[in-house]
Write a structure and sequence with these properties.
This protein is an all-alpha fold. The protein is 73% helix and 0% strand. It starts with a helix and ends in a 5-residue tail after the last helix. The chain has one domain: Serine Threonine Protein Phosphatase 5, Tetratricopeptide repeat. Helix 2 (25-38) runs antiparallel to helix 3 and helix 4 (60-77) runs antiparallel to helix 5.
């Protein structure tokens, strides 16, 4: 299905938010990142995410979604500092996306519990800001 979506996106040629779809080549790539994270393949998720130009993401919520997927991938990989940095970038991009998503609040709580002390403190502040403890 991802290959079919990528083919359709290439034929479309550009990302557009027609009828709220935010569909296009970049969005198809973002879905590949999400699937890799969901399957627990953090390395592939990060490699795919590095190929995406964040400036090409036209919908703010989609940009935050990519950053959240990147944070989840880094967390899976045990790279807690990078996971925290990605979540902070997502918070700067669209703070409401973090507060509204239960899995993101769980990720922030887990970072606050498992990360090394310096990152743990930053993650705890982030978790508090997004309401992860309520």
């Amino acid at each position: 299905m991802l290959a079919e979506a990528a083919g359709a996106a290439r034929r479309l040629g550009t990302d557009a938010n027609l009828r709220g779809t935010a569909f296009g080549p970049v969005n198809a790539q973002m879905h590949q990142v999400n699937v890799a994270v969901t399957l627990g393949d953090a390395g592939t998720a990060i490699d795919l995410a590095r190929q995406i130009d964040p400036a090409a993401i036209t919908v703010t919520e989609r940009k935050a979604s990519l950053l959240i997927d990147v944070a989840q991938a880094y967390f899976q990989w045990g790279k807690y500092g990078q996971a925290c940095t990605a979540l902070q970038a997502a918070e700067q991009t669209a703070p409401q996306e973090l507060a509204a998503r239960s899995p993101v609040r769980t990720l922030a709580r887990n970072l606050a519990a498992l990360a090394p002390p310096g990152t743990r403190r930053e993650a705890a502040h982030l978790a508090d800001r997004i309401g992860a403890y309520t």
